[in-house]
Write a structure and sequence with these properties.
Muramoyl-pentapeptide Carboxypeptidase, domain 2, about 40% helix, binds zinc ion, alpha+beta, Zn_M74/Hedgehog-like, Peptidase M15C domain-containing protein
Length: about 260
């Protein structure tokens, strides 16, 4: 909350409505200034006033914060992060440039003859490995897993990725950022809404935190598109794994050992 209030104080100061300290403390000065913002409903709870101000400020700066309704959602979160970046660095965040991700061509292209030659038949050549940190099963968080079943040819690489993730983020951040929310690996099924077999059928794809990275969501909604996950993606990409989110801006939950 403190960071949100800081952003709001900064926005109010820019409007000439606030002369107090940018300290993230919601005092009477901050409240008085908020109530003077055109369009602000004085009867709203303070939390919603703060959210409303962030939405107004974001819109004025050209970020799409969705409806100005004082309700915090993924769109507001996205706009808020853009505002934080702008206030911190004095410029807008670099746009998304998927072409700057250099494919390593370590893994064969999905559905290509090379893919079938390399990985063989669906649902074969599987191995169950013990992963470096415990996973929570995303569709039923009461269940935990320390083992993942995947293709033998990706097992070593997968473990290396997850070890790096654990070393970089540590157990607490892994929990906070939901990097342990596991949505599945091997699953012999067709692609969602498609007629081709999913790379999950070979055990060369994994899903993480599906609830906050839904199939059709783009980078303005998907949790994994936020900068705090840059290291997470670096770990995968250093091993040549491909994020559909990073490359195609959909299915941000999904990462695979296959080019697209
Ligand atoms: Zn997937």
């Amino acid at each position: 909350m403190k960071e949100k209030i800081k952003v709001v104080q900064q926005l109010l100061a820019e409007k000439g409505l606030y002369r107090g300290a940018i300290d993230g403390i919601f005092g009477p000065e901050t409240l008085k200034s908020l109530n003077r913002v055109p369009g602000m409903s004085v009867n709203l709870p303070n939390v919603r006033k703060v959210t409303t101000m962030i939405q107004i400020g974001a819109r004025e700066k050209g970020f799409n914060s969705g409806a100005i309704d004082g309700m915090w959602g993924p769109q507001t979160q996205y706009a808020f992060e853009e505002l934080v970046y702008l206030q911190k660095y004095g410029k807008v965040r670099e746009p998304w440039r998927p072409e700057e991700i250099n494919p390593m061509n370590r893994w064969p292209r999905q559905n290509s003859p090379a893919f079938h030659e390399f990985y063989g038949l669906r649902a074969k050549n599987l191995v169950t490995v013990t992963v470096p940190y415990e996973m929570k099963i995303a569709w039923d968080m009461r269940y935990r897993a320390k083992k993942i079943t995947c293709h033998t040819k990706v097992a070593e690489s997968l473990l290396l990725v997850l070890e790096n993730v654990r070393n970089i983020y540590g157990e607490n951040e892994i929990e906070r950022l939901a990097l342990n929310r596991f949505g599945g690996c091997f699953n012999n099924r067709l692609m969602r809404g498609g007629t081709q077999w999913s790379t999950h059928s070979w055990g060369v794809a994994l899903d993480f935190d599906p609830a906050r990275n839904q199939l059709t969501w783009g980078r303005n909604q998907a949790a994994f598109a936020h900068p705090v996950y840059n290291d997470w993606w670096r770990c995968w990409e250093e091993e040549g794994w491909v994020s559909l989110g990073r490359r195609k801006n959909y299915d941000w939950m999904h990462v695979q050992a296959a080019e697209v």
